Amino acid sequence: MLSGNSSLASAKTLARRGEGEVDSPIIWKYSTQTCIMRQNRLLRGCLIPLAWFAVFFGGLANASIGDRLPEFRQCVQDCESANCGHNGPSISLQHKLLLWNCPSECDYTCQHIVTDQRLARDPPYLEPVVQFHGKWPFYRFLGMQEPASVLFSLMNFLAHDWGMKSIRDNIPARYPLRKYYLAFGYFGLASWVFSMIFHTRDFGVTEKLDYFAAGASVMYGMFYTPIRIFRLDQAETLGASKTGTVLRLWTLLCATAYLCHVSYLAFWRFDYTYNMAANVVVGLIQNVLWTWFSIQRFRKVGRLWAAWPGLIVFWILFAMSLELFDFPPWKGMVDAHALWHLGTVGPTIWWYTFLVKDAKEDLQSQRLKQ
């Protein structure tokens, strides 16, 4: 019962839509009816202008239009007044462990109360479901704010874990690129751990850790991509005297770029647009390199698997494009962002399969040369 985790037992509409009952035995003193009575005085003069505002300026204010609604603010205020005093009802241990408190419980429940009222309005709104605090009103499960994104992040974590095991089992330790591939896996594991944490509970610190870990994974991809494509690890590529120097300089450049990126976001300004642009640019450079490599590799080897990197790139781009079609969560749980996470599971498994095949082909060609 994914919608049955509100500890505000008075949110009857939530329980009805979730086809389950709320998980707290406490009867909160704030009710949906109280919210409706309070809001009716506000709604008479506010709802129609707000609806038109959402239509014409949704692109600018859509990220937080919900928490600007007068009825939502009034709902939260009334809920906190009724429940957040010394004698207020207790919060379940499960929710306390995930740092839910009385104000956040009120905020969560009022999101769904207001959303249900907007969905039930006749005539209907053009956009009845709006975002609150930059997020859609998701149903919790076991205290997790975005259960579908947590699940799909876990699937990506397991995909990396499987891939690393495949590398250990199929690529000998003497292969020089093996350590880079395993490091890629560790960066992937870390990024999806922080993704699970962030989608479980959205705080400023969990958001930053998620973004920084994802950025580290993207930057590491930029680091090892030219090492594989141009074989910067081999002495015959640049000469024995230059190989170590070039690798050290490339490592220093990538590490410095990442540290500057994180420092700017952490200590100067957390700029979402800049962060997205930086990751997209670095990711696109990798994608172009791997697409070029797959064409060259296919011409050389003449086998279909050699073209896999280019196909994987297109799959990744398709998965990323899902973010462009942002929509209210299906069944209150699955939105475009969650589908994006789901869409990266397959190419991750495919990518590790390619790395293993590529390494085996490389080792075989080395044996033939000897």
TrEMBL record:
Pfam families: Per1 (PF04080). It is found in: Endomembrane system; Endoplasmic reticulum membrane. It comes from the Eukaryota. Keywords: Endoplasmic reticulum, GPI-anchor biosynthesis, Membrane, Signal, Transmembrane, Transmembrane helix. The chain crosses the membrane at residues 46-65, 138-159, 180-199, 211-230, 250-270, 276-293, 305-325, 337-356. Its main location: membrane. One of its GO terms (molecular function) is hydrolase activity, acting on ester bonds. Coiled coil: none annotated. Belongs to the PGAP3 family. PANTHER family: PER1-RELATED, POST-GPI ATTACHMENT TO PROTEINS FACTOR 3. Involved in the lipid remodeling steps of GPI-anchor maturation. This is Post-GPI attachment to proteins factor 3. It comes from Pseudocercospora fuligena.
